[in-house]
Amino acid sequence: MTIKIDNHMIPGTQMNQEAMGNVTGLEFLDKIFYIQNGIMLAQIRDISGIDGSTLQNWVKRGWAGNAVNKKYTKDQLARILLINMMRQSLQLEKIDFILHYINGDINSQDDDIISESKLYDYVCKIIDLSEHDDSAARTPQALRDDIAAITADYKEVFPGAGNRLRRALEIIISAYAAEQLSDFANQQLIALS
Hints:
Layout (H helix, E strand, L loop, with lengths): L24 H8 L8 H8 L3 H9 L13 H13 L5 H12 L12 H16 L8 H11 L10 H32 L1
């Protein structure tokens, strides 16, 4: 049985991709930050659908970065959206582990292998590729092939960083797919009642 992910929302948000001009990933983030260099907590709530206390809890636990002058950066929003994409299918501690596996300490960019916004861009492009794939089956190898194609432009910051990135992307995309399948199952259950 094959169920295709066909979500019309920008990953990690409650925003319809078509209503936003069919942008996703970095284009979406650039659109949000076009006029401003930071966004407020209320704007993140509107974009993600996450309540303010949950966001503040994530900041307190070190899963999302602290606001500077009550404003969040493009990379901070990207990280929040990545967490939001996976939080129904993975425990928050596991999501934090994956994001640390990629970028180490949240308060330092010195150990990052990729910016959070570029990571989010890769995730969105891979999801978009699989949503528009007309093949009947999406195998793990097809996912790996998509990841390799999308990340072909990635420049390693140290030997092995590319492999680390690809492994993490496979987990992130799989977690997102699991969340989408869970939503599908719940919709089917609702239809029975």
